[in-house]
């Protein structure tokens, strides 16, 4: 069974372009820490064009979180900026990218409004 984080990043990679990020360029690395192990996801954005890899390389912004927390964010059960403000996530580098990238994460399953769920999700 594939976790919510993997589904989220695979969906972004398949999508290849995200209009919500048309004015955004940069790289964001997500470091998911669990004990001594860290799983990496690198999101490269070039005016909305997306490329996702699992590389551990330099990035403009690095976001650190536990895999459990990030699964909740990727599934819409948790809000990333709220987790950051609580101190449950860390950010180094260009914090503006965090705000821009936050738009592509799904909203709460029971939320109302324009935030969309990601394409790979089963309703």
From TrEMBL:
Please list the residue ranges annotated as the SCP2 domain.
Answer: 14-105
Output the superkingdom of the source species.
Bacteria
- InterPro entries given for it? SCP2_sterol-bd_dom, SCP2_sterol-bd_dom_sf
Protein name in UniProt = Putative sterol-binding protein
